[in-house]
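Blinded run. Sample ID left blank on purpose so nobody reads anything into the name before looking at the predicted structure. Input follows.
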Amino acid sequence: MRSIVYSQPGDSSVLSLVDRDVQEPGPGEVRVRVVVSGVNPTDWKARAGGTYGDGLPFPEITPNQDGAGVVDAVGPGVDELAVGDRVWLYMAAASRPTGTAQESTVVPASRAVRLPDGVSFDVGASLGVPAMTAHRALTTHEQGPARLDPGALEGRTVLVAGGAGAVGHAAIQLARWAGATVISTISSDAKAALASAAGAHHTVNYRSDDATGQIRAIAPDGVDIVVEVSIPQNAALVADVLANHGVVSIYANNGGDEAPLPIRPNMSINARYQFLLLYTIGDEALSAAAEDITAALQDDVLPVGDDAGLPLTRFALEDTAAAHDAVEQDAVGKVLIDVQGE
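Blinded prediction complete.
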């Protein structure tokens, strides 16, 4: 099979296309014929040394956590999946050498989730890191909910920072599905159009002189949940618009590794700042996210593409290095790799 591998951390030039033997799944594992692989910032950052540092725990690693395809073999003890099942994958390369930038990958059965009939492999490959991170960000409020379904966020207001990004896109879609009023902060008219296409009820340009006033006009009592991509940049605005007992779910460090937080404004409203990382949130949270996302898929809630507010940029498998570079250079929308035909 064709596979992209790297044997040392570095820039995208360390990636190479090789021919490898197809692996057999072990106990509790499945093998998936990958149709589409999704690329996220975490993929190029891991390849560059952000996960393992200067060394690697495996002789070779195939990158990319997310993807979609068809189960073509199951290992002993796997009852929940069968050969021929269409699935979406998450965390394929988490503490494993078997990412999705290859024609066939072996993963724990828990990381392969059935893709509902009629849902495309493009959608499946766009879930994983972005959608599961968004799910976690929307379920950290001290008063709940811990799960998402229609009505779970009824009466709540959610502010999604950077609604044109992949996590922001999924957060808008899931929050609206769950019944929230959704505001998204953006930096341009073009990104406002993307956030609106995803389902945001309101968009506010954070570069506006009166972003706080605009958000407060929409949510006089403040926003209940902030899905935050850049707390170093947005700390003051967030403190000004957060509701009493509001939560700020921080999933990225865009803008820097340190952020000064205004103490008194946050203290006066009992604010909660919740940091989150998909790879350490635990199996219970991952399982809940997978189940709720699949339910949302059945309601046609997570479409991708231009009309849905998440433009797709495609690469061939042999061009995986260029795909990583595109994500590192902040390509708008979602970057996908066409691994092989359906």
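Unblinding after everyone has recorded impressions. Residues 90 and 111 are 5 Å apart (CA to CA).
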